Every structure is written in structure tokens, then in C-alpha cells.
Amino acid sequence: MPAALxxxxxxxxxxxxxxxxxxxxNWPATLTQRLRQAGIPLDGPRIVAVTGWTTDELAQxxxxxxxxxxxxxxxxxxxxxxxxxxxPAEDYRGEFAGLLVRxxxxxxxRASRVVVVSIxxxxxTRFAREQDRDPARIGAELDAYNAIARVEARRTGAGFADITxxxxxxxxxxxxxxxxxxxxxxxxxxxxxEPAVRAxxxx
Length: 203
Fold this sequence. Notes:
The protein has nine helices and five strands. It has 203 residues and is α/β, with parallel strands linked by helices. It has a single domain (8-202), classed as SGNH hydrolase (Rossmann fold, 3-Layer(aba) Sandwich). A five-stranded parallel beta sheet has the order 2-1-3-4-5, sandwiched between helices.
């Protein structure tokens, strides 16, 4: 009987599930394909993510998801909707830290098997321009959120992958909705996330 493939759990929101692109084009699926092509076996990602979810809504979604740990790799990318709804960064800190503890538990208490992925900057998108949003304010608030996520990841012993710069360098790589990334941008994310994931799987 063949050995089971390493299991991948991806936790997040629209950016994890890949709103407005095909299921095989979101970054967890694209990353899985990259790793397989490099000879690194990985099961197809189990994704717990819904467009619009905040940190507390992700926590509720995890409660309802009937998850079966341990997973060999757990990713966590969450917070854009907290910022979008105007929630304070300090509230995000506590809720994110709690999700990270849960992610480590789902990885069999192996913090090194958890990878936190930064939040992209939606302030540079066509949607933000059309809605007459303030890109400087959005960017500054997301920088504060991402700084918290980076600190919490380091404190916990999890990996961290920064894709925010990609979103700012490639504001043209958007899906038809003018807000979410296109498959081409997700492919760039997967490339950027891959080193952290390889390190996690090697740990």
C-alpha cells in the first residue's frame, strides 16, 4: 500500500481560496503543483477559506470544518477584511495570535511546519481607484497588520512569506473584478512562498 502524501491545510480568506480564478489557479494549488514538479510530494491542499472572512470568522469556520490533524504543512493568511472593516490593528494582534496557536496545533504542535503569508495591498487595485479609496492609508494600515503577523510568526517559530511587495509591483495582474489577483499574480506568490514551504517541509 503506498504511503500517504504529506497533507497541506491552507487557512485564510479570498486570497487563499482564489476568488475570481479557477480552483487550480489559486496559490495553494499552484504551489502544490510547483513542488510536485520539483519532486516534492504533497497532497492537494485542504482549504478552509471564504471570501470576506475576518480573523474571528476564520476561527468559527475552523470550528465547523471537521479538521483532522496532524497536517504536515499549515498556511495562514488572514486579516485584509479586518483592515477593510476598519478594525484596530491591536485587536488583530490578539485574534491572529490565537489563530496561529491553533495552526501550530493542527500541524501536530510543530510550529516549524506553519507558514504565515502576508496580506497583499488592495489599495493599489483598480477597485480601490474606482471606489476613490486612499491608497496611502490602506497601505500603511496593511503594513501595520503585516508587521504584527511577522512578529507573531517569529515569536511562535513559524515561517513567514512576504507577498505584499508583489501585489504592489504588479497592480495590473488582477482578475476581472479589478480587486483580486489574477492567476498570473498567484503564480508569482507561489514562487515567493515556495522557499518558506520547502523549509517547513524539511524541518
